[in-house]
Amino acid sequence: MSGLSAAALQAIRADFPALHQEVNGKPLVYLDNGATTQKPRAVIDALVRYYEHDNSNVHRGAHTLSDRATEQFENARQTVQRFINAARAEEIIWTRGTTESINLIAASWGRTHLQAGDRILVTGMEHHANIVPWQVLCEQTGAVLQPIPVKENGELDMAAYAELLTPEVKLVSVVHVSNALGTINPVADIIRLAHDNGARVMIDGAQSVAHWDIDVQALDADFFAFSGHKLFGPTGIGVLYGKAGLLQDLPPYQTGGEMIEHVSFEKTTFNGLPYRFEAGTPNIAGAIGLAAAIDYLKAQDRVLLAAHEDALMARFAQRAEEFGDLRIIGEAAHKASVCSFLLQGAHPADVGTLLDQQGIAVRTGHHCAMPVLAQFGVPGTVRASFTFYNTLEEVDALFKGLEKARMFLL
Fold this sequence. Notes:
Layout: H1 6-14, E1 22-23, E2 26-27, E3 29-30, H2 41-54, H3 64-84, E4 92-95, H4 98-113, E5 119-123, H5 132-141, E6 144-148, H6 158-164, E7 169-175, H7 187-196, E8 200-204, H8 216-219, E9 223-227, E10 238-242, H9 244-247, E11 260-263, E12 268-270, H10 284-298, H11 302-323, E13 326-329, E14 338-343, H12 348-357, E15 360-361, E16 363-365, H13 370-375, E17 381-385, H14 392-409
Parallel strand pairs: 3-15, 5-6, 5-7, 7-8, 8-9
Antiparallel strand pairs: 1-2, 4-10, 9-10, 11-12, 13-14, 14-17, 16-17
Helix pairs in contact: 2-10, 3-10, 4-5, 11-14, 12-14
């Protein structure tokens, strides 16, 4: 059962203008949602409305446009607060995306709390954005970065994780959903075990927020990050959630502008939360657009959307089994809408190019997750990533495209 009626699915697709075009003379089949999602008309209209009517800097102007922009900007923060069920609006910090959010915590929390001999745990399936900031931090502090092993089916080895949780572990930073494998990690259990060990936890939610409801208080996450552009919102806007008690005494990540309380040549004092971490003019339109995306998503029946995505994944699995000649990379029991695979005997880039010629957009390469692909002995994969506006017919079109690629390449 797809979860969405044909009429409901077509109504949703009508909300996304970019879906209704031809690419290389073929109807677009957009299966690169793990990289970025398309934007509904509501988001596009919100951006245009801001720039046409309310364009002004926030918090500083003594005029009506600034007042209107500030109200929308701060209302957007409250929209995000409600969306992930943060306890307070000031726990929502605007960033450029998940990558900057992780870098902020590495630079501010990490340099404050970590020292030589401390350990940071990440999973073996992390995006580079949740590896490299910690490597840099370890070089600066003498701390040690250690990966949690990944099983051959793409699932996290929770027994190994439990053994790695020694008193030296001060931070656990894990991806909620692997962008390369689609694996859904048991973050509630990961957080509970880390807290029992006295460690803090950072969750990379870039690939999870678009698929189901997130409740940071129920998870008891210390820090949670996501990007607007993977949530049907604009690029260049992201969110860092952090517990107020952990954020309020941290040094700023960047300085200047909004994060200042008072400046003299003798001393500068910094603003309170959340502005302490929001130096300079923020991405005002991006925040407003992200709020519009969240409002759009919350107006849908997310249970039905999730059921439809499950149906897409089931159709992919069925067609892959029938097709043969595919090696699936990542076969965890619990997966989100990411399917990484190889057409046996063909280079992923060649497959991607031939699919693009048929109007089918997929991602190829290492997906900024080199370590986990190296574990599977492959330099890259073809990745098809689905969301609720995709159709079962588009899954079929992917395999029709793969059949043509097989004819040319094998």
